[in-house]
Design a protein that fits this description.
- The complex is a heterodimer of chains A (about 425) and B (about 475).
- Chain A has about 425 residues and is α/β, with parallel strands linked by helices.
- Chain A has helices at about 15-20, 40-55, 75-80, 85-90, 115-125, 140-150, 165-170, 215-225, 230-250, 260-275, 300-320, 390-405, 405-415; strands at about 65-70, 105, 110, 125-135, 180, 195-200, 280-285, 330-335, 355-360, 370, 390.
- In chain A, the strands form two sheets. In chain A, strands 1, 4, 5, 6, 7, 8, 9, 10 and 11 form a nine-stranded mixed sheet that branches. A two-stranded antiparallel ribbon of chain A has the order 2-3.
- Helix content of chain B is about 55%, strand content about 5%.
- Chain B contains 24 helices and four strands.
- In chain B, strands 1-2 form a two-stranded antiparallel sheet. A two-stranded antiparallel ribbon of chain B has the order 3-4.
- Classes of the chains: A alpha/beta (about 425), B mainly alpha (about 475).
């Protein structure tokens, strides 16, 4: 099993939340005409173009921050094993790799052989790694830990928006497409995001005709969704403009990618980036079997396949973006690592600390950050690698270094949290 | 007290896959309480042949399915069959409230389609979910725990005394019963896993296998449940201990509350009213988890009756309600296919027309990849793609744009009161009344009539009437009011 986009309990009243939201992006002004409808196809285009050109005042400059969710709980000790660790080999008789099989990093850690492209990025200083990183309170629950990460507001139980949403809000980015979820459902991290959209195929977002003139159809849909306090209608205002804009974007040539789900998601994201949409942050889900309770596989099998797929998708994305890779930073995150010891089925149960990869064309990479907790019996916490670096410190560091996010903005994004100073990117 | 058309329409919207004139009429005649009781009577429409016999796995026992030549090499056929049968039932069964509950409990005790135990998924739907949906939730949970589909999915069949696999034990507490609010600890999870070690499925015989050598013996405590769990040579005794634990957590007050919360969220509101949840939790406790009694308590509760529809339909509900509203049928028959021709097993079936729309919107029945079931709040289903797709599907179906897949709707039969001399405003009013119980506000109805009038000639002919009706239907199906249940 792996983790969900949405917690099964404890939902919030989105309708009320939405009632407080002002109208978004290009529909500003249009709707202020006392119910009079002045919208046409051309009107939508012009209004959107206007928003795109002018951008949003106060919006953070810098990289597009891509959050890659390694949902399911990625094992960090197989992705980035510690070298010369007899303890690791004895705890994982079928799963540990010999040091000689690993790709060299900094002399203390090695890299899984299927992550050869990542090794190339590391050497080119386009990738850094944070190890023994994770959530402040490990629950070993996919749902709780994933939700906690996406909300990232541990002492604010009333918080309803996600951390990427607060990144947009705190930096004043509200143009449509500021936040993109490459997924059928809106991820929690982009919940309540100004200018947030979510989809994973163009065919799903291009509007078919209602056997009437296009302007009349858009007007009609506009009137039908002219509600206050109704979440569906509020989002529809955004969707109407977005679908018109996406007709243009869909013409952007796509790059070459491997035939995997995660690669096709990166391909779509690259098209959006290349077409000049004002994306500030994006969210992508890895697609694989990281929740390896049974037969985790090291040289081949589940985890080896996972790493290959991850590696190939990111490398294709980088190639496709060309110069835009220099304006892009991809950060991986997972809800937890796996148990230190393998189980009877040569699998790995839920654990705590794992690794995060940070990569991009302009990062100062080639580093591994780890306050190494050790893997001796006394070092583990309930049999898990201990978290010594909070994942929020890594995200905060990336946002500061790569997107010009200020300390006060970070305080809004991660309430009640003082990030650790890192030297990573 | 007799229900108005609008009231009956609203209850049908909440408790079925979509109001039809027949359902609304039945509700008006019987009243809500009697109608719901009839729907929850296991004998009601029990003999209805919604499924053709060609849905092969549905006719086989849990032991027979994996051995049948049609499924030996192609286990995916079992789950394909299940998704098709489910879509057919949701759109066409008379047992609407039952089907609503079946979907709910398939989400509650979810096992997805793509994993090792999928060959047992039809049996799980039938022998666990459908069998107990009109009975006891604790017994449903017991049946789920030891069913091969669940055992394979959450690795209970791999859990041994030496290496207890916590996957099932954790979800038992977190998702299926008390939820984390009960304050259980990691030790509780481990102990739950321990007491449930040594169970697996004997595929040859098609029975539960209890391996005493792999069972953990020794005292366990899970919340307030304690068992000495002393060494025994009696496998039935070990099974009884496992069942006792499952029943204990299923009858825990925290489970009553979680059960009530999820039911209210399914049938009433994304943000369940806490007093309503407390009332239903009490009924759950009083009736030891009797599902129909809790459901009846909900539909007869004043807080349920007073609310307008506020929940965003999930894609399968959008599909079924649209199909029901326009009395749509696929071109091909609603059969399961021909098992004698394995390569074309579902080739002759029209059922994929139904399931494919939901699938495209990320809601193929039972295909959620995680153990917590499909999300049940508006946020999850309100996206750019879900909105544009629903507008597109509304147009495709009403205009009959997929003639090879869907029969064109017979709008004259769907709206029999409309005559060729009807004004456009009248047409919109009739569509609004029948599809939405009149909930579309007047300014929106007027805007629809205005645009339909601009496009279609108001001439006094059958073809003009059809054109105007078609356009009005598309607009109503594209409205936010149609997206709520």
């Amino acid at each position: 099993m792996t983790s969900p986009s949405f917690q099964s309990t404890g939902c919030t009243d989105f309708i009320n939340t939405q009632a407080a939201l002002s109208r978004r992006g290009f529909f500003k002004g249009v709707m202020a005409l006392g119910g009079g409808i002045v919208l046409s196809t051309q009107g939508v285009d012009l209004a959107l173009a206007d928003t795109l050109q002018n951008g949003e005042p106060g919006a953070a400059s810098g990289d597009i921050l891509v959050n890659l969710n390694m949902r399911g709980g990625m094992d960090g000790l197989l992705a980035v094993p510690v070298l010369g660790a007899a303890g690791l080999s004895s705890a994982r008789p079928t799963l540990a790799l010999a040091d000689s099989e690993l790709l060299p990093l900094d002399g203390f850690f090695g890299l899984h052989p299927k992550l050869a492209g990542f090794k190339q990025l590391f050497d080119a200083k386009e990738l850094s790694i944070a190890h023994a990183v994770g959530t402040p309170f490990g629950t070993r629950s996919h749902f709780d830990d994933q939700l906690a990460i996406e909300l990232s507001a541990y002492y604010s139980p009333t918080t309803v928006d996600g951390w990427q949403s607060r990144l947009l809000k705190s930096t004043g980015a509200s143009a449509v497409f500021s936040g993109v979820g490459v997924s059928q459902n809106t991820p929690v991290s982009l919940k309540d995001a100004p200018g947030g959209v979510a989809f994973d195929a163009f065919s799903d977002v291009l509007l078919k005709d209602f056997k009437m003139e296009r302007g009349a159809q858009l007007e009609l849909l506009q009137i039908l969704h002219n509600d206050t306090g109704r979440y569906w209608s509020t989002v529809a205002q955004t969707s109407l403009g977005a679908t018109v804009e996406l007709e243009r974007v869909a013409q952007t040539p796509a790059g070459t990618y491997p035939d995997t789900e995660v690669a096709s998601r990166f391909k779509l994201l690259a098209q959006l980036i290349k077409s000049g949409l004002p994306i500030r942050t994006a969210n992508i889900d890895f697609d694989g079997d990281l929740d390896v309770h049974v037969a985790a596989g090291n040289r081949d099998g589940a985890m080896a396949d996972n790493f290959q797929r991850l590696n190939d998708a990111v490398m294709a994305f980088r190639a496709d973006l060309g110069d835009l890779w220099k304006r892009t930073t991809v950060t991986t995150i997972t809800e937890f690592g796996r148990r230190f010891e393998e189980n009877a089925a040569a699998g790995l149960d839920h654990g705590w600390a794992s690794v995060m990869f940070v990569m991009g064309g302009s990062v100062s990479g080639g580093k591994v950050h780890a306050r190494w907790p050790g893997i001796g019996a006394g070092d583990l916490v309930n049999g898990d690698l201990k978290v010594t670096t909070d994942y929020r410190s890594v995200l905060a560091h990336v946002m500061q270094q790569r997107a010009g996010v200020s300390g006060s903005q970070l305080a809004q994004i991660f309430p009640d949290f003082k990030p650790e100073e890192l030297q990573l990117v | 007290m007799a229900l108005t058309q609008a009231q009956a329409h609203r209850f049908a919207t909440a408790l079925t896959y979509g109001p039809t004139p027949a359902v609304v009429d039945s509700l008006q005649k019987q009243g809500l309480a009697k109608w719901a009781a009839q729907q929850l009577n296991p004998k009601y429409a029990n003999a209805e042949q919604v499924l053709d016999d060609s849905f092969l796995a549905h006719q086989l026992s849990v032991a027979e399915v994996p051995k049948h030549p049609a499924f030996l090499a192609t286990k995916g056929r079992v789950t394909t069959e299940l998704t098709l049968a489910t879509a057919v039932r949701q759109s066409y069964s008379k047992r609407q409230l039952f089907e609503v509950l079946v979907e709910h409990f398939n989400d509650y005790l979810h096992t997805p389609l793509s994993y090792d135990g999928r060959v047992y998924r039809v049996a799980y739907d039938r022998d666990v979910i459908r069998k107990h949906a009109l009975g006891s939730f604790p017994e449903m949970l017991v049946a789920a725990t030891f069913h091969p589909a669940m055992m394979a999915y959450l690795n209970l069949d791999k859990s041994t005394a030496e290496h207890p696999n916590e996957n099932f034990g954790r979800e038992l507490l977190e998702l299926f019963s008390v939820t984390p609010s009960a304050g259980y600890t990691e030790t509780d999870v481990v102990n739950a896993a321990r007491l449930l070690t040594g169970f697996s499925w004997d595929a040859k015989k098609g029975v539960l296998k209890i391996n005493l050598a792999k069972h953990y013996f020794g005292p366990v405590q899970v919340l307030g449940f304690q068992h000495a769990n002393a060494k025994t040579t009696d496998p039935d005794e070990v099974l009884a201990r496992g069942k006792a634990l499952v029943r204990y957590v299923a009858l825990h007050p925290a489970t009553a509350k979680a059960f009530a919360f999820r039911l209210v969220r399914r049938l009433h509101s994304d943000s369940p009213d806490s007093a309503l949840v407390a009332d239903l939790a009490q009924v759950y406790r009083d009736t030891k988890g009797n599902i129909p009694k809790v459901v009846l308590a909900l539909v007869n509760h004043p807080k349920f009756k007073s609310n307008p529809p506020v929940k965003v339909k999930r894609p399968a509900e959008f599909v079924a309600s649209t199909v029901r509203a326009l009395q749509l049928t696929p071109v091909k028959p609603l059969t399961g296919g021909n098992p004698a021709k394995p390569n074309a097993y579902f080739g002759g079936s029209g059922a994929p027309a139904l399931s494919n729309i939901a699938k495209q919107q990320g809601h193929l029945a039972m295909n959620w990849p995680f153990p917590n079931g499909y999300p049940d709040v508006a946020l999850a289903w309100t996206t750019l793609s879900s909105q544009v797709q629903r507008w597109n599907v509304a147009a495709d179906l009403a205009f009959g744009r997929s003639p090879k897949t869907w029969n064109k709707p017979d709008l004259a039969a769907v709206f029999p009161t409309l005559n060729t001399d009807a004004s456009t405003a009248k047409i919109v009013a009739v569509v609004n009344e029948q599809l939405l119980g009149g909930r579309l506000p007047a300014p929106k109805a007027a805007a629809i009539a205005e645009r339909v009038g601009q496009v279609a000639p108001a001439t006094d002919s059958a073809s003009a009437l059809k054109q105007r009706t078609e356009l009005a239907v598309v607009a109503v199906l594209a409205s936010p009011e149609w997206m709520l249940r």
